[in-house]
Amino acid sequence: MLIKIARPSDCKASDITPEGIYLSRRTMLGASLAGAAVAALPGVALGAEPSRYADVEPGAAPGWFKDKLGATRWGAVTVENEAITPFKDATHYNNFYEFGTDKGDPAANAGSLKTEPWSLVVDGEVAKPGRYALEDFVKPYQLEERIYRLRCVEAWSMVIPWLGFSLAQVLKQVEPTSKARYLRFETLQDPKVMPGQRSSFALIDWPYVEGLRLDEAMNPLAILAVGMYGRELPNQNGAPLRLIVPWKYGFKSIKSIVRISLVAEQPQTTWERLAPTEYGFYANVNPTVDHPRWTQARERRLPSGLFSPNVRDTLMFNGYGDEVASLYSDLDLRKNY
Ligand code: MTE
Questions:
Q1: Percentage of residues of the chain with pLDDT beyond 90
Q2: From the alpha carbon of 154, which atom of ligand 1 is closest?
Q3: Residue 4: pLDDT above 50?
Q4: What is the best residue among 11, 84, 88, 96 to mutate for testing ligand 1's pocket, by most ligand atoms within 8 Å of CB?
Q5: CA–CA separation, 135 vs 71, rounded Å?
Q6: Closest to 16 (Cα-Cα) out of 77, 67, 88
Q7: pLDDT tens across 90-147, in order?
Q8: In angstroms, how far apart are the furthest CA atoms of the chain?
Q9: How many CB atoms lie within 10 A of CB 139?
Q10: Cα 80 from Cα 147, distance rounded (Å)
Q11: Is 254 known as a binding-site position?
Q12: Which HAMAP family does the record cross-reference, listed alphabetically (predicted)?
């Protein structure tokens, strides 16, 4: 991310697929997110048949995930009139530096990551800290399908159907103390299976760390995802548990989380530490504040190729301004990029 600027040639012309094929039925139904009351959206079918996506490769879902699928709220949040990115692009054009810096590296190398068993620590300023087996951690929560735009700071974007649950529900469960003002997230650190962490060229000080303000984390759009395209997360997309904050640049959406800490001070995050003039703590999608080395006014929507770059205007807060702009009414977004 730091060193590479995405070029149209990164995608082969053969990757281009007619957009209409990937329009999901529910996307066209257009139950868009109006207001922040996600849980109260009309037209949400409880336990309905899973959405079907054209090209999904089946995974080997753990038992707890299969059990949860039956009660999933399909299409709980959608994006109107925008094609869902083909599964192949969403799973073979990735950023997951623990597995390499090229877009194809995570798909090629992340198979070595063992996601079962997986444990997660919630600690810091909470009344109920704990170490959980993943299946116990997710047990209280109903899965929802959330179709969100994902906008990378490198100026490419996708539309992805995630399966997850709101971070706010988790926070209510663990009860932040009055001192808690931020969340700090940490990815697994295991150089044995993560070649990027063994590389002597790596600039990142592992583990990968991200953070949110507590009120951002409480916003109904912020979710912890365990699946995508109706199946469990592929390893390269951050299995078994990742953050999704759709109004922020993709680097905030940290993958393969092992620790969530509630803290009093703003945590230092991976990209901010590495290049503070290029990547900030907030990282809200903002077409009016350019990256020092490229414009943020436009983006390439994948699939994108040399002859069909599929460029579109970037939307303020990635199109989620109605839901999140009030979080930043006191903030100069030019300084707090
Ligand atoms: N999380 C970890 N642990 N390591 C990473 O390198 N890359 C980030 C984010 N989360 C990254 C990460 C970046 S830059 C982006 S754009 C998104 O993951 C990409 O998510 P995707 O590969 O599922 O599209």
A1: 82
A2: 16
A3: no
A4: 96
A5: 15
A6: 88
A7: 999 999 999 999 999 999 999 999 999 999 999 999 999 999 999 999 999 999 999 9
A8: 55
A9: 12
A10: 10
A11: yes
A12: MsrP
The token pair that represents 288 in the structure block: 């009016």
pTM of the full structure: 0.89
Q: Is the CB of 94 under 6 A from ligand 1?
A: yes
Q: Residue 30: pLDDT above 50?
A: no
| Residue 80, amino acid | E
Q: How confident is the model at residue 18 (pLDDT cuts 50, 70, 90)?
A: very low
Ligand 1, atom 10: nearest CA belongs to which residue? 254
The class (CATH top level) of 13-328 is alpha beta
Place of tokens 């979710």: 223
Rounded CA separation 75/159 (Å): 13
Torsion sign, CA atoms 273, 151, 188, 4: negative
Q: Residue 42 Cα, ligand 1 centroid: separation in angstroms? A: 32
**For 151-178, how does the pLDDT look when each residue is reduced to its tens digit (9 = 90+)?**
999 999 999 999 999 999 999 999 999 9
Q: Please state which of the ranges 4-18, 149-163, 209-223, 289-303 shows the lowest mean pLDDT.
A: 4-18
For ligand 1, what atom is nearest to the CA of residue 187? 3
Domain extent listing, the chain: 13-328
